[in-house]
Design brief:
about 40% helix; about 1900 residues; seven-stranded antiparallel beta sheet
Amino acid sequence: MARLADYFVVVGYDLDKRGGSEGQGHILQRFPEKDWEDNPFPQGIELFCQPNGWQLVPERERPSFFVSVLTDINSERHYCACFTFWEGLDNPQLPKAEASEVDEDEVPGLVQPAQVFAPKSLVLVSRLDHTEVFRNCLGLIYAVHVDSLSVPLETVIGNLLTCVIPVAGGSQRTITLGAGDRQVIQTPINDSLPVSGSSVAHLFRQLGIVNVLYLFCAALTEHKILFLSSSYQRLTDACRALLAIMFPLKYSFTYVPILPGKLLEVLSTPTPFIIGVNSFFRSETQELLDVIIADLDGGTVTIPECVHISLLPDPLLQQTQTALSMVLDPELEMADHAFPPSSTQPSTLKIQDKEIRAVFLWLFGQLFNGYRWCLHIIRIHPEPVIRFHKAAFLGQRALTEDDFLMKVLDGMAFAGFISERGPPYRPTDLFDDLIANQVERIRQEECSPHKVMNHIKELAEQLFKNENPYPAVAMHKVQRPAESPGHNDPKNLAMFPLLDDVTVQLFIDHAAAKLQTAPPVVKAELKGMVPSGPPLGDIVDRHGHVLANSARRLEVVRNCITYIFDNKMLEAKKLMPAVLRALKGRAARVCLTQELNQHVLQNRAVLDDQQFDYIVRMMNCTLQDCSHMDEHGIAAILLPLVTAFCRKLGAGITQFAYSCVQEHMVWTNMQFWEAMFYSDVQNHIRALYLEADGGEQSIASRGQQESGPAAGGQELLGALELASEQSRLWPTLSKEQQSERVQKEESTVFSQAIHYANRMSYLLLPLDTSKNRLLNRSGIGDVESVSNSYVTNSIAGSMAESYDTESGFEDAESSDVANSVVRFINRFVDKVCNESGVTNEHLKALHTMIPDIVQMHIETLDAVHRESKRLPPIQKPKLLRPILLAGEELVMDGMRVHLISDGREEATGALGGPPLLPAEGAIFLTTYRLIFKGTPNDPLVGEQVVTRSFPIASLTKEKRISVSLSMDQFIQEGLQLRSCTFQLLKIAFDEEVASDLAEVFRKHMHKLRYPQHVQGTFAFTVGQSGKTLVEHKTKDKNQSIKTLSKNLVKSAKRTIGRQYVTRKKYSPPTWENRSSLQSELDEDELSVSEELDQSSLTLSSTIRSSDRQTMSNVVERACCRDYQRLGLGTLSNSLTRSKNEPFRISTVNRMYTVCRSYPGLLIVPQSIPDSTIQRISRCYRQNRFPVVCWRNSRTKAVLLRSAGLHAKGVVGFFKSPNATSAGPSQVDSTSLEQEKYMQAIISSMPSYCEPSGRNTLGGFTSTHMSTSDSSDKLRQPKIGALMKQVMGGKEDVPGTFSRGALGQRARVISLSQPRVSGKARNPPGGKWGSIRGSGRLSAYNPEVGNRLSSKESPQPNGGPSEALFLRQQRAYLYIIGDKTQLKGGKQDSFQQWEVVPIEVCDVRQVKNSFKKLIKACVPSSATSEPSMTFHRCLEESEWMCLLHRVLQVSVLVVELLDTGSSVMVSLEDGWDVTTQVVSLVQLLSDPYYRTFDGFRLLVEKEWLSFGHRFSHRGAQTLASQSSGFTPVFLQFLDCVHQIHLQFPMEFEFSQYYLKFLAYHYVSNRFRTFLLDSDYERIELGVLYEEKGERKNPQVCKSVWDYIDRLNKKTPIFFNYMFSPEDEEVLRPYSFISNLKVWDFYTEETLSEGPSYDWELVQRGRQERLAEEVPDKPDTTTPKSQRRIVWPCYDSRSRVVPDAITKLLQDLQSLEAELGLPPEKWKDTWDKIKANQRAEAKLENRPSFNSSLLMSSNLSHQRRSQGVYLPESGVGSSINLAMDRETSTTSTPVAGRPSTSTLYSQFQSTESENRSFEGILFKKGALLKPWKPRWFVLDKTKHQLRYYETRQDKECKGVIELAEVESVIPGTPTMGAPKNIEEKAFFDLKTTKRVYNFCAQDSPNAQLWLDSIQSCLSDA
């Protein structure tokens, strides 16, 4: 029974505290005045009576009623029913002003004092929620007052306060307050079910289904919810409704249905809440960021961006929505029916309300079914303690990933649910019944909505019955106030009277006394055992979610385990991969644990090493796929097994399986350990009671009767049933029995806690306790936050702290393993012991034991660790050592890794061939490369060696990945390393590699990849054994070079520093004065002694003899040699220089002061003085002004290169009048000078000098004339078409180059129609595309292309357009410029030069395109998406388009030059695209550049000297790391490769040569491609060092030297098809359809790695051959000649037979047989070619056939089609003379004999005075054989020199004749050449040793003796 009303309160407006804008309320009277003991008076009621604030109003308002809810400190809810009416204030003291002040909204003056009304509230406080009863009672009191009924108010209130009614039970109680009224109060049958009236239905009407579902999910997942409405009662109802649909969960956070405006700051609380606020305060709720706002009046729910609401899992969400719409809108289903039923009205609101609640009840039945099977009961007495096993519940529902359910189970509401409904012996309600008996029905019906509907109707009926058990009785009779006409008249209404408190109190006391004397009401509580319902397991299986594993797979698992225990290891090994695959499924994992369980005897199973390894492997695999929650309980079943399986390591030392399965996150999860502990405790407690008194049978039978079918199947009683039985018996036990049971239970828990402390230390302490892998990785420190305990952690925490200090165990830093483990176990023990009521003494004892347990375990582990290290590792393949280059050193020794296959399919065996990857081996980091070497995992190819490597300098991207290997268990950390040599290493570190080691590896790799300075690269550090960078000191011989470099650099630094300062007004001083001036200025910075000596500044005849040699070094640079060859200028003395040469070599940049990125010597027009050049240079970016780099020997047209103009320069350049700049005079003068410069270039052309000037290309001999004319005529239309393509012309002119239009990608974009003058007969085709096809409008003049393509077009100067103007109007100079730069420039009216605007690809485009190209060629993972195929990715990379563009422009320039116009390429900064175009043009136009020497010269001149920024573009140092890798040079090589494919006979070098350069330009093995300009190379002293003497002969610093040296030994770089035509100009097709993907990007040879480090490949092959030679020759079987070639493993090109290689090899073996000295392959080749040519002349055969060796019958078509001769790359398996020439000390001389004559004047070769020469056999030093050598007797130098062969330029050794003592005939010694007569031997005795010689015959020997004698006597 409970009081209907606890307090009655009258609250009124407080007239005394009316200051400020808001009034206040105060309590006028309250009854009873003393607080009830069981229920104190709630505070702050006056705030809740007027939530909007207390205010006076000018007009009387209607009385209002609402119910507020207050929650007290014990979380009891108090319902405050407020009835408010307004009373007139007849207050003469109230001045007007104050009235207006009180209510500021009113206009002062309107308010009369007597007309102000103040609110007054009657409040009833109760713990029961009977809204209607309260409304009636308070209405009655008001009616009694208003209508002045005869009943005293005190009586009514006294009766109200003494009314007592039952809380529940379904009875009806009639009450009367003594004013002639009567009310029936209906109590619910079961008070655990909420009472909702029709509030739920109203809520759905106001907000709609989806919105309410959002609110429902938000409330369950603990979000903040705010209701807005202008009605208070609606707020209360909405909040009540939300709580009602949450049943059976109870809301436990802040719940305030009506929040007063004064308390709005509550909304910013951090905890979840459900709060209602009047819409009046809407604006104040706008800035709440994390609150979901439901507007009841507007029907909207607003969810902020930052809030994510987890919704119900599908399909539940869908089913719930369907059910709700069937309840709320039953017509929806029939809406489309042709004959709709007459009416399907929804049920009445009250019924509908229950139906909606039934839907939610049904929903919870589905969500929580089977929850009782996941309860652990850990104490029964004195109170049951119950825990919920969340992980198992989620696992069985297969909902571990579900966000919503996770949050609900972790929430406070569910915690309350478990503590309330967990106990097995208690009263049950509707929900318990649903879970126990209706789950089956729900599951069967869930798919048919109508059956669901019927079920919901049944549930709704029960809910309705609970609230309205009897038919409604119309017995209410309540007085309402009479609506009299003068109701609003204040005169009629008296003030509410002060009540007599004594009278009321008397009523209360009287009733209290009556209650005491009455007999107590005894109501038997219907407690019973709560049934559990069907277990969860079956539920999920019937869905078929879990049983994915077929019986076959389980069979495999069982067989494998049987094999292991029967010791059939080979069988087990075969099954292992299948087993590990099967273990991905849950059923197989369960099967594994069951099988293993059968092999454990008495908690022990001792295995041998191999068995142990397999079992551990399977356990790891099983655990690896378990999440850290262990939702399927696999880890739980394995926990006892890992302490059972073990192996003996030595005397008394046993290693258990747990030391090998620690790597899993589940062991560090506190929730897992808690769940495990509780389930064990439950089993023990169950056992405890089952043993007790042998009362098992009686209990069991009773249990079966009670729980019916649920428990019938189980022979033993479940723990919950048992607990229920015990709870039932508890009151019948004596005190002794009770305490005994409590004690037994407590000690059971205690003993389990000790057991678990041991278990946890087993799994948390790593085998090697020096490493703290496990604990560091998971945040064990933050475990409390994830623990699923519902006990507050503060107690546990504080207790733990106190014990820590008591046990003398201080918190050490977390790196100490033992400490962190002890802390973890302590925290666990505190938590579970507090929850399961272990006594404090026991807890203290535990805390003292734990450190000892851990310490003890560490000691055992140390011994195990020691022993386990001695075990041989289980058959891991041994690590293979890589072969290193000379000077290459290991930075990190091999770390065991697995090479994982990437997106390339060949290696995985997908395209046929064996699966070479994944492979196991080691990764090595050297100073030069990253190398993986290992063997494939697949046992079929286990003997093969897999090598993959790339230079460390080519690493472009490194990314951490985590890899799960198919065989292994762990997810391993790995790295994915991408290189710009088109290689990808995807490696996973083996478990033996510590993660910190992997980190060290990464750091070292980064350090090597991005050194601080270029001197840190391999090319510089090679051969220095110390890791520090030591400056290479050269010998004194090169001193002059050094000083030159120093001086150059110094002066450049000085002058460049000042150059820009002195720009303003005065012209800079001449260079001669500059140096002295500078040094004066710099006096303070530099010491005077360092002043420059004049000689290094001039290049005239004043050069001192000592410096001549230094200058010759400058002169000998590639540029100068080439300029000489082209006849562009000589370096003779300035006086003798002929003035009629059009060009001169200028030394203006000799100090690198004009342009730092240009070479020191430049070709400029003869007429331009150096001072002009300095001024012009400023107009160009980076000061790169136009210089001549090539001249066409036939047309004498020149090719110039420069950077683009500065923006201002363009305007000045075209003399635009509107130029604005700092000094106008200067700008004008500069633009004039620039014009002069252009004019000088034009006038250098012979065609310009002709008197008839402009319409011939004269100036040649008549023969030239005729050829050039005819060729010009042929070529005319071509150029125009080309030009239009390059600039984007639309109309195609018939001609070779226009087929295929613009290739695939260069789409034609139509631009604005050009201006056309009226006179034009035929307007030009006005649509122009850009070379980029980018669709930007461009504003250049389209007439250039038209003019060139002989289209008629108006002249810019308005002149008439003639049809044939092409021949007359060809411009002398075309400037290829960047379209964006050339806007706004006027054309030169005399048409002497013309600008061809094109759009170039900028560096960013190249960079991005290259990234995509790499990803296309070397994808990181295989993909089946159609959008990711190789060709699609290749197309998207646009690499081919870029090549097409560069080639297109180059071909255009070639055409222009060939027709006699000069061309100036002036794009971007002049060092990227410009360099590409200029080099390609020269390569296409001049056959010389297609030879070895020429190509080298071209690269040295255009790329190196002219300052392509190799270091910057290759991101070679730390500074350039951010700029990224941009392969401009690679693009150029690719273009050369494309040309090579189209003209295979025009190149002396092979494709392999190009690949070799492509690989080594990024490898940093050579210094050639380091640094950004000659200036930087001089600064470092790198430029001339190749000429100097080498300290380390093995190390080649220049790639050219290396190529020369290699080319002498073996023809890998030589193209056998080389047979050039004289003066052939190549014009390749550039359409995308003609371009091929370069196989450099895609090919790979896994057997030996990249073949570009030739020595490594050779040595590797020799090693392999040595291994392949069998010990005993097997004569029985004939050896097959066939070889198997595997894709991507073997080098295909090397295996393909090749006639020339074969012949050269035969020749070599013949030489060896005949004992002849071997000849160089090149000499043999040249000889044969010469013979062929001679024969051809005799037979008058066409020369081009004969010149091609061995293929004289091929027709000339070969040129276009190409014959297949393999690329002689690694291609030819020649290793000619490689073995014999073991010494590599020789320094190759640049150039082969054939071309070296060209530069004889530059080569400072020693004069060779050969008095006598020939072949002699010489016996080597001690124990060395006789060898034939070429000897030269040199009288002048007085020495006998010997060479390896006659052609060799490198001297192998020298015998100084001054040291010779005698020459005497000798005798043959051991090993001398056979068949040679004795007299041919002679000996030469020197002071140091005796040389034995042997000539071919005796006369020859005599000749030698005489010659040497005569030399000696001459001396």
